[in-house]
Design a protein that fits this description.
globular, single chain
């Protein structure tokens, strides 16, 4: 492994240890969700047609660390942590995370979304890679799309059951 990979892994580990999760005690509103992570730039809650559940959209300030599969590995870990916390609230039905790059005019460079109905009943026992395999990630650029394909190449348990995206070679 290269030094950059070790550094990215170490930084992700350090960041993971300092990630402030309030658990079920957070309020399901913009301020309550923003309190979960200082990098959250914006939160939108949209009541669904059933009148009971919510779509939670979160925009997160995060520039790519190294470029490549390590950034998607970080997104898989971060997304798992934040989405798992949000899903503890039964009224959360759908979640969409958008990673924006402040250094690049707030470019939306990565997306990850999940519907509660797409998750198995034991979703909370899945590893972050298995959980990522149940989500719908999207790259915001051609380059970040290549990074996602590289990520799937290395972390096979993260692959979606429906198969790899069309732009990824199997």
């Amino acid at each position: 492994m290269s030094i950059a990979v070790y550094m990215a892994t170490a930084l992700a580990g350090i960041w993971g240890c300092t990630y402030a999760i309030a658990g079920k005690n957070f309020e399901l509103n913009e301020q309550g969700i923003k309190a979960l992570d200082k990098k959250i730039a914006k939160v939108e809650l949209t009541r669904q047609v059933d009148g009971k559940t919510q779509l939670v959209e979160v925009r997160i300030n995060r520039d790519p660390l190294t470029g490549g599969k390590n950034d998607w590995n970080w997104i898989a870990q971060d997304g798992h942590r934040l989405m798992s916390t949000l899903l503890e609230k039964p009224e959360v039905n759908r979640i969409r995370l958008v990673y924006i790059s402040p250094e690049n005019k707030n470019l939306d460079w990565a997306y990850i979304s999940v519907n509660r109905s797409d998750l198995p009943s034991d979703w909370d026992s899945l590893s972050y890679l298995q959980f990522f395999g149940k989500t719908k990630p999207q790259a915001g650029t051609v380059e970040t799309g290549r990074w996602l394909c590289d990520f799937y190449g290395q972390y096979r348990s993260s692959r979606p059951a429906a198969g790899l995206p069309k732009n990824c070679k199997s």
